[in-house]
Amino acid sequence: MLRFPYRARPRKMSRQRLPEEGIIVGQEGRLQRLRQLVTGLVRYERIETVYQHCDETRGYAERLIHTAIRNGDQHQHTMEMADYWLNEKDLIYKLFDVLVPRYQNYSSAFTNIYRTPIVYPGRGTEMGILELKGNPWPDVLPKQRDNRYVISNVLLQAARKDYNTSKESRKTKNELNSSSENSET
Amino acid sequence: MASYSRRILPCFWKTTKLLTFEDSARRVPCRYHQELLPTRNYLLPETVEEHRKSELSKHPELPPSITSENVPADFRFVYPEFLPDPQYDRRDSIRERLEREDMYRRRAVIDIPEFYVGSIMAVTVSDQYSPNKENRFVGICIDRGGVGLRAFFILRNVVDGQGIEIMYEMYNPTLQSIQVLKLEKRVDDKLYYLRDAPQEYSTFPFDMDPIPVPKGSTVPVNKMKVQLNPRPWLERWERQDLQGVEDLKLEQRFYDKAAKVAKPWEKYDLMKWYRENTNEEERDSIMQEVHQRKRLTDIEKSKRKTKLAERKR
Amino acid sequence: MNFIKCLSTYATGTRSFSTTSCLHEIRKLARMRVVDNSALGKAARLSGKPARVIHVYNKTSVGTVGDKVLVAIKGQKKRAYIVGVKQNQKPNMPKFDTNNIVLIEDNGSPTGTRITVPVPSALRKKGEFSKILSLATRFV
């Protein structure tokens, strides 16, 4: 079961230019291109292409890992799929020995997808980044620094606290005064 | 609240219908228009209460002793019609649940046995026009499909040299009995090619005796190969990758064209499979429910049987 | 659409053509199988020129089980009832491998004396077929 929103219909990825096969058109070419992308994703754990291609690749990569987790490496259909989708055959070992143990107990998606800013001037292509979770690379999004204990913040915190306590004490004093006046009258 | 609405809507407070503005304008006196206008499309509280108390909303409490950890692996092939239609824009979880409840209820009344494409079956339907008010047909199951209450199977037979096919809906209330005379599978998913085969391949006698299958044995697969008639055919069988058909004896150009239009990469398209089928987790959960309900109905049936036996004594 | 296509084929002079589309509709020029034991039907079958529908007596001009048709058979015009169709049917209704007809005379009485193949049981709900149904040997 895919744990991310996926498109109801596949995207057409017509006219794929592949280094070995040349230009391939149609369904077959689409799958050839996706195979390359899935292989690259499993090899490098992070790829950067057109956003739409990233999104298409995501489903195939996740389904492949999911089938591998579910059926194991003794299952014929699963091995056929792994053989088809991973062009470089040493990655089949990586799939079953590295990725399956990594994602076995995940309750979320196995991949992350990001949009990258459009480069200007340029053709305005929407580019994206697809990565496997738990990869060794530095994070795509910058991590927020924990600056609670920076000296300026500590001092400001203390000042705020002081101000609040003094305000409250003043308040209680005033109340006491007013109540005593009332009782006198 | 209940008494209030009863007072203003004396004529139809019991109906299960949604009130429309036209209805209210027609039936309710003028002075109540303003009261009804803002709540144009509302449901009466009585109706809601009625639905809440109906048999449909009651889900039978499963006793704690029955837990089905191990659903048989072949269950989804025995009960494929319980799986929902995977087209997500047609899905409705409440309707699917209600349909499944209806199917369990129908199955408690009529025995719908395990069968596959290639099994020989006998079906009795009630027929108001025949003198004995029923109609029996025997034939080989050439296709099976549909989802939920619309599940169907097609039987084919040759009677007096005339090929006849009848499509039956499995949960049609006019069906009186479904009997499997010979339980077996064929190597193909659909046997429509029997239409273009000689008649002896689809001829089965109506007075055929049921062949019992020993309990616990696997369903036998009939690997018979059918020799089709020469062309013209109803379909281009050479393009369909049929396993149960002898060599078609065609010219080479037919096979060339078949190879050209074939899509051998489709079986590797993981997302295509995922979009067109119910995913594994959902399938397992539904099959677990079916397994549980089947055990419950089996227990009820055996109880009823013992009661009957006691009464007879 | 198929029908128009077939007509155009006819105009170009192709002799053997079929109005049997994938829908198997019984329209004009559809070829039918005579299933009674009349001499006319047998002669048509043996000569290899089966009966052809030249008119369907209903509003849609597509015949189904129980409809009356006018057929051209051995150079004659004959009326007939459709007693079995190839088209996909509703649940519980039989679908036959051939389109079957039973020939009738102009006064409504059947030409043959026996129907050799099974007849759909649903025909019995119409009262007008009592003469034909009395010839039937088997119902499905």
Report on the structure:
With about 180 residues, chain A is α+β, with helices and mostly antiparallel strands. Chain A contains 5 helices and 5 strands, in the order ββαβαααββα. Helix content of chain A is about 55%, strand content about 10%. Chain A has a 3-stranded antiparallel sheet, covered by helices on one side. A two-stranded antiparallel sheet of chain A has the order 1-2. In chain A, helix 1 (about 25-45) crosses helix 2 (about 50-70). Chain B has 2 domains: about 1-55, no CATH class; about 115-275, SH3 type barrels. Chain C starts with a helix and ends in a 7-residue tail after the last helix. Chain C has helices at about 1-10, 40-45, 130-135, and strands at about 30-35, 50-55, 70-75, 75-85, 95, 100-105. Chain C has a 5-stranded mixed beta barrel. Chains in contact: A-B, B-C. The interface of B and C includes residues 128 and 164 of B. Chain C: Pfam families: Ribosomal_L14. Chain C: This is Large ribosomal subunit protein uL14m. Chain C: GO terms for molecular function: structural constituent of ribosome. Chain C: Keywords: Mitochondrion, Ribonucleoprotein, Ribosomal protein, Transit peptide.
In short:
Chain B is an alpha+beta fold and 313 residues long.
